[in-house]
Amino acid sequence: MLHLVSQPAALELLPQRIMAGDAVLLQRAALWAALAARAEAAGVNALIAKQVQVYVLQEWLTVNGVTAEQLAAKVQVIDYPGMVTLTERHAGNAAWN
Protein backbone atom coordinates (compact mmCIF):
# COMPACT_ATOMS: atom_id res chain seq x y z
CA MET A 1 0.00 0.00 0.00
CA LEU A 2 1.10 3.56 -0.72
CA HIS A 3 0.51 5.99 2.15
CA LEU A 4 0.26 9.67 1.19
CA VAL A 5 1.15 11.69 4.30
CA SER A 6 0.45 15.43 4.36
CA GLN A 7 0.77 16.23 8.08
CA PRO A 8 3.66 15.28 10.39
CA ALA A 9 1.24 14.34 13.19
CA ALA A 10 0.18 11.30 11.12
CA LEU A 11 3.68 9.88 11.57
CA GLU A 12 2.85 9.16 15.22
CA LEU A 13 0.07 6.73 14.24
CA LEU A 14 1.46 5.36 11.02
CA PRO A 15 4.13 2.97 12.40
CA GLN A 16 1.42 0.91 14.17
CA ARG A 17 -0.72 0.70 11.02
CA ILE A 18 1.83 0.05 8.34
CA MET A 19 3.39 -3.15 7.05
CA ALA A 20 6.79 -4.05 5.66
CA GLY A 21 6.74 -3.51 1.92
CA ASP A 22 4.46 -0.49 2.13
CA ALA A 23 5.65 2.89 0.89
CA VAL A 24 5.16 6.39 2.30
CA LEU A 25 5.20 9.58 0.27
CA LEU A 26 5.68 12.66 2.45
CA GLN A 27 3.88 15.72 1.07
CA ARG A 28 3.23 19.31 2.07
CA ALA A 29 3.93 19.89 5.79
CA ALA A 30 5.03 16.28 6.31
CA LEU A 31 8.12 17.02 4.22
CA TRP A 32 9.66 18.74 7.24
CA ALA A 33 9.52 15.48 9.22
CA ALA A 34 12.03 14.00 6.78
CA LEU A 35 14.75 16.45 7.78
CA ALA A 36 17.46 14.66 9.75
CA ALA A 37 17.81 17.56 12.22
CA ARG A 38 14.12 17.62 13.18
CA ALA A 39 12.62 15.76 16.14
CA GLU A 40 9.90 14.41 13.82
CA ALA A 41 12.56 12.44 11.95
CA ALA A 42 12.13 9.80 14.67
CA GLY A 43 8.78 8.91 13.08
CA VAL A 44 10.40 8.62 9.66
CA ASN A 45 13.20 6.49 11.10
CA ALA A 46 10.63 4.21 12.78
CA LEU A 47 9.04 3.60 9.38
CA ILE A 48 12.40 2.85 7.79
CA ALA A 49 13.19 0.41 10.61
CA LYS A 50 9.99 -1.47 9.65
CA GLN A 51 11.31 -1.92 6.09
CA VAL A 52 9.02 0.78 4.73
CA GLN A 53 10.27 2.89 1.82
CA VAL A 54 9.92 6.63 2.48
CA TYR A 55 9.85 9.11 -0.39
CA VAL A 56 9.64 12.87 -0.93
CA LEU A 57 9.05 14.71 -4.20
CA GLN A 58 11.99 16.65 -5.61
CA GLU A 59 9.59 19.44 -6.52
CA TRP A 60 8.58 19.86 -2.85
CA LEU A 61 12.24 20.04 -1.84
CA THR A 62 12.97 22.66 -4.48
CA VAL A 63 9.97 24.84 -3.61
CA ASN A 64 10.92 24.78 0.08
CA GLY A 65 14.66 25.29 -0.40
CA VAL A 66 15.58 21.89 1.01
CA THR A 67 18.37 19.72 -0.36
CA ALA A 68 18.49 15.93 -0.42
CA GLU A 69 21.52 16.07 1.87
CA GLN A 70 19.32 17.50 4.64
CA LEU A 71 17.00 14.47 4.66
CA ALA A 72 17.12 11.60 7.12
CA ALA A 73 19.11 8.61 5.92
CA LYS A 74 17.31 6.32 3.46
CA VAL A 75 14.61 8.85 2.53
CA GLN A 76 14.42 8.68 -1.25
CA VAL A 77 13.83 11.63 -3.55
CA ILE A 78 11.56 11.05 -6.55
CA ASP A 79 9.99 13.16 -9.28
CA TYR A 80 6.38 13.16 -10.54
CA PRO A 81 6.93 10.24 -12.96
CA GLY A 82 8.40 8.35 -9.98
CA MET A 83 5.23 9.07 -8.02
CA VAL A 84 3.16 7.62 -10.86
CA THR A 85 5.34 4.51 -10.78
CA LEU A 86 4.80 4.19 -7.01
CA THR A 87 1.05 4.45 -7.51
CA GLU A 88 1.13 1.73 -10.16
CA ARG A 89 3.36 -0.52 -8.03
CA HIS A 90 1.07 -0.49 -4.98
CA ALA A 91 -2.40 -2.02 -5.09
CA GLY A 92 -4.03 0.62 -2.93
CA ASN A 93 -3.35 3.94 -1.29
CA ALA A 94 -4.35 5.78 1.86
CA ALA A 95 -4.26 9.52 2.47
CA TRP A 96 -3.15 10.72 5.91
CA ASN A 97 -4.13 14.35 6.46
Short overview:
The chain has 97 residues and is an alpha/beta fold. It is 34% helix and 22% strand.
Task: Describe what you observe in this structure.
A five-stranded parallel beta sheet has the order 4-3-2-1-5. By secondary structure, the chain is of the alpha/beta class. It has a single domain, classed as DsrEFH-like (Hypothetical Protein Ychn, Chain: A, 3-Layer(aba) Sandwich), CATH 3.40.1260.10. β1, α1 and β2 (23-26) form a beta-alpha-beta unit. It is built from four helices and five strands. α1 packs parallel to α2. Helix content is 34%, strand content 22%.
* Distance between the ends: 16 Å
Counting structural domains, the number is: 1
In total, the number of strands is 5
Q: What is the CATH T-level topology?
A: Hypothetical Protein Ychn, Chain: A
Task: Give the CA-based shape.
Answer: globular
In percent, how much strand structure appears in the residues? 15-25%
Give the full name of the CATH homologous superfamily.
DsrEFH-like
Structural class: alpha/beta
Which value, in Å, is the CA radius of gyration? Answer: 12 Å
